[in-house]
Specification:
single chain, mainly alpha, Ferritin, 5 helices, binds MU-OXO-diiron
């Protein structure tokens, strides 16, 4: 069984992961509306990854003999000024999630819950990847600047992300 503070915090993280999924799906919807199918595809893949992150916490809570309580998910933003601004928001969001995962690890350490520390190591590694990916796209979009042709090429590049 998990300690109460850890159980509550892990349960809360399901909500954070599903909120992330909802944010990325909203971003994908915006990109579809803006005729940027490659960006929309990349963000939909991200949406699915976040639901899978939520499910990892869900399954882990049951693996430890506790139960899940789902909470409300707030409406995400629906309008974004530009692809560059959108991806800056992705990076800021991922930095926030990294902080949440680090807080969970600190709590698991305080509670002397070694199994949870081991489970969280996957997420610590994943957050490095998440921030790296968003940063790479921001750098690409800075080079794109105001060029519609370059934006179209960037859209094609993001369309190649594995997943559906
Ligand atoms: Fe679930 Fe993007 O971190």
């Amino acid at each position: 069984m998990l300690s109460k503070p850890l159980h509550d915090a892990l349960n809360e993280q399901i909500n954070h992961e599903l909120s992330s999924a909802y944010l990325y799906l909203s971003m994908a919807a915006h990109c579809d509306a803006e005729n940027l199918p490659g960006f929309a595809h990349w963000l939909r893949v991200q949406y699915r990854e976040e639901t899978e992150h939520g499910m990892k916490f869900y399954r882990y809570i049951y693996d430890r003999g506790n139960a899940v309580t789902l909470k409300a998910i707030a409406q995400p933003p629906t309008k974004f000024k530009s692809p560059l601004e959108l991806f800056k928001q992705v990076l800021e969001h991922e930095k926030k999630v990294t902080g949440l995962i680090n807080d969970l690890y600190a709590l698991a350490t305080k509670e002397k819950d070694y199994a949870t520390q081991t489970m969280l190591q996957w997420f610590i590694t994943e957050q490095v990847e998440e921030e790296k990916n968003a940063t790479a796209i921001i750098e690409m979009l800075k080079m794109v600047g105001d060029s519609p042709v370059s934006l179209m090429m960037a859209d094609r590049q993001l369309a190649a992300r594995a997943g559906s």
